[in-house]
Amino acid sequence: MSDFLDQVEACVPALRRYARALTRNVDLADDLVQDCLERAISRPGLFRPTGPVRAWLFTILLNLYRNSLRSSRRRTWMLDSAAPDELSTPAPQLGHLALAEMGRAIDALPSEQKEALLLIALEGLPYQEAADILKIPLGTLMSRLGRARATLRSVTGTPAEPRLRTVK
Amino acid sequence: MSEITRDMLMAYADGQLDPATRQAVDEHLATDGEAAAEVAVMQRQSDAIRALYGPAGAEVVPGRLDPRRIAAGMSRNRARRFVWATAAAVLLGLGLAGGWFLRPVLEQRPASAVLIADAINAHSVYVAENRHAVEVGGADSEHLSTWLSNRLQTNLGMPNLEAEGFTLVGGRLLPGEPELGGRAAQLMYEDAGKERVTIYVTAALPDKEPTYQFSRYEGTDAFYWANSRITCTVVGTLPDERMKAVSQMIYAQLTEGEPEQTPYRGS
Predict the structure, then answer these.
(1) What confidence tens digit (pLDDT) does each residue in A98-119 have?
(2) In B, residues 99-158, which contact A (CB 8 Å cutoff)?
(3) Domain B109-254 = CATH 3.40.630.10
(4) Domain extents for chain B?
(5) Cross-strand partners of B223
(6) In this predicted complex, what is the ipTM?
(7) Of the candidates A59, A85, A111, which is a domain's last residue?
(8) From A100, which residue of chain B is nearest by alpha-carbon distance?
(9) Domain hosting residue A134, numbered range
(10) Is A14 part of the contact surface with chain B (CB cutoff 8 Å)?
(11) Chain A residues close to B56, C-beta within 8 Å
(12) Could you tell me if A76 lies within 8 Å of chain B, comparing CB atoms?
């Protein structure tokens, strides 16, 4: 039991980060994570995964996120709370403007692409684990990632690319 | 490696390739500037995403997201549910057997224990809330006082704990044990360090006996007393001395003008 809780605890920072990126709202994100943890911990032992819990927790979190999206389409309260951009201090080297633009571009992605892209680019999960979490085949994951990246590229423009153009 | 696909470039940018394939892509990139630029763009996208949201994973995790705390809260509820489920089964069995007169078996827990358990439960549920910690804010303490007094059918003033650094966050009405009045009020106070203390109040018990009791459950302290007018449980996780000072201050204020009930002053 405590081993299980240790594993869950180790995942909390990643869950918060992912939820924050999905919702772009500190409180909403932490509410989602709290819900997720409560559900996970209340599940009787037999219904818990035998191996690592990370993928399982992410699956629960995503389900809750999708449900909250669905109900927010019926009610509009989420528009209010999602409006302020509560971003953490971005790293200096990339420029606030470019980052803000990137944030908006990610936000505008279809949510299936956003969910996939953040699992890979932000969480650095292996493709297969991400595909399992999203319950889609590997090929579908790759094509969602490809489409997401192409959109981001067209929205945020192609920044100068000479650095890596090798002269040989 | 004969052909380098777009998917392969993406997997390369995401660091997902096995060493052999990675090396093949490396060699390919050295000769194909366009592919190299493609990879660079994807890596910059990932860098930007991590710069935007990565820091959220390094923040201090708030207490309400502590798995142990959540688990502790649940086992408490589960134990309660189990007790009630068992009690219901026993009652049904006895009832069917015509053993209705054995009902007192279920009432072994003294009222104070039930109220303290409820108070601690309510405390742990609501101190974890940020935006919905209270139902009525403390700004309108007069309204809060009138409302809760009416609902509990007793006179309830809001204790002033400024001297201990606590301000009233507000209060809420809660369902209580049916046989103990059915309603309870919770007042919440907070200090500058966001430390919270709650006061759980119900109307007086049928026996109206003055009594008091101190208990501790998993690091949470509860100071309970009852008099002819109310029962009150102060719940918090403060250091002992401070908890005592706060409890005494609340006790003094809520029993003001009732000289016949003075377990502390002893007259």
Answers:
(1) 788 888 888 888 989 999 999 9
(2) 130-131
(3) no
(4) 6-58, 109-254
(5) B214, B234
(6) 0.80
(7) A85
(8) B52
(9) 95-157
(10) yes
(11) 16-17, 20-21, 29, 88
(12) no
